[in-house]
Fold this sequence. Notes:
The chain crosses the membrane at residues 36-59, 91-110, 131-154, 174-196. By secondary structure, the chain is an all-alpha fold.
Amino acid sequence: MAHEADHTADHHHDDHHDHHEPGFIMKYFFPLDHKVIAMQYLFTGMAMALIGGFFVYAFRMQLAFPGTSVPFYGVVSPTEYNSLVTNHGTIMIFWVAMPVLIAAFGNFCIPLMIGCDDMVFPRINRLSYQIFLLSAIVLIASFFVEGGGFGGAWTAYPPLSARTDYNLTPLGCTLWTVAVGLEFIAFLLGGINFIVTTMNSRAPGMKYTDIPMVVW
């Protein structure tokens, strides 16, 4: 009986150890939970929306009152105007619309809508957000290098993007390119996770035709 009691106590101790709650830092800054990662994408996208909104405020004020000092910014030079327009479009597409509408809602809703506990690759899911956050930091950093950020339009189509007077500096253009590349890598990892989770972790009995249209 004593041996069984000790075995039971050890079993309960192991269960307690296995279900140990992560600390605040691990839970909210390095999470594996798809819902928390979804919130990270959402809040980062909202923060980038504020930055993109400030950019549009600055260049619209320049259009309304040419040559005057814009409150909280200063005088917008021609090169700065191109940079503001370019990075406003870049941010609103790649760092607001995509993370909020695809990554945030996808991470939150897909596991719930197909009946699974989490994404198939939670660590890749976490890595995807971390790369996305790094890409946002690199993009914002491009404004603080000598000459400013990239100004060749958010689509980066030549001949406009190939002109040195729109590129401003090679470093600003390079950082913009690196930021977009990192963002694409982040969403590639996230997309793979979405597809594999939907294909392999559906609830028992759920056919492809039963998958909600939102997931498709």
